[in-house]
Design goal:
single chain; alpha+beta; Thiol Ester Dehydrase, Chain A; globular
């Protein structure tokens, strides 16, 4: 069997490459984990800036790091282990303090599997202060994305203060951390799925959204609470200084439901 090389490309306003979906990217049903999709979003943003000569070390030397603030994903079809995905990312200007970045993931037939939007904060890694996008514009002014992305905008997610399910505690361990010294953004979705009621864990997903409200660091304990409403589940992880994250999952209806079948 002849092996085909994977391609990568850099554009004026984006970056893309092909990747095989590996076995550890997937859950027990061999479908891609939402945490793996969040990870790819973070990694591909890095690939884009690497290609522009603005890699992590260069930005760090300029006292700039990007931290994911909000993300939203729409799952059109959930890819499975072994599939080759074509993943594209584009910058999408700025809105308020947020730098915006969008994504599409397509299968070998060029069918759209996942689309995503994300908001990032530019932060001084020494003072931990949020920098305005104008600080980055001195290096590069992000252009708008040239195409429409079929995904909800990432917005504010709030849970009610009553009638919540107690989902237990989750301590932040060494292997949860990334090079910025806090809980890696891709690991949050794994924490969410581990805490979900067992009846929901294998369900198909239509959309997933998450707000990253505060950094979680080594040995902090997050108190997890949740609320289920029809096909939607919301969850919050609260640390010692307040809300660390909030997340919202809209599940595909189960077989026999009014709106189709689970992915």
């Amino acid at each position: 069997m002849e092996l085909q090389p994977f391609r990568q490309w850099s554009r004026e306003n984006g970056y893309g490459r092909q990747e095989a979906l590996a076995f550890p990217d997937c859950d027990r049903n061999l479908q891609v984990r939402i945490g793996s999709l969040l990870t790819k979003m973070a990694v591909f943003g890095g690939y884009d800036y690497d290609a522009r000569g603005l890699g992590h070390e260069k930005l760090l030397g300029m006292r700039m790091v990007f931290l994911l603030s909000r993300a939203a994903l729409r799952v059109h079809r959930r890819p499975v282990a072994g599939e080759v995905l074509t993943i594209d990312t584009w910058e999408d200007t700025a809105k308020g303090p947020h730098m915006r970045r969008v994504f599409e993931m397509r299968d070998s037939g060029n069918h759209l599997c996942v689309s995503a939007k994300s908001d990032w904060l530019l932060v001084d890694p020494v003072s931990r202060k949020i920098l305005r996008p104008a600080a980055f514009a001195a290096i590069r002014t992000p252009p708008p994305c040239p195409k429409d992305i079929d995904c909800p905008d990432p917005g504010k997610i709030r849970l009610p203060r009553e009638n919540l399910q107690d989902l237990g505690d989750r301590r932040i361990r060494w292997s949860d951390l990334d090079g910025n010294g806090h809980l890696f953004s891709g690991n949050y979705a794994d924490i969410v799925w581990d805490a979900l009621p067992s009846s929901l864990q294998p369900r198909g997903v239509e959309t997933f959204a998450i707000n990253f409200n505060r950094e979680a660091t080594l040995d902090q304990v997050l108190r997890l609470t949740g609320q289920e409403s029809e096909n939607t589940y919301r969850m919050e992880g609260t640390g010692p200084t307040g809300s660390c994250f909030t997340a919202e999952i809209v599940f595909a209806p189960e077989p026999g439901g009014d709106r189709g079948t689970a992915l």
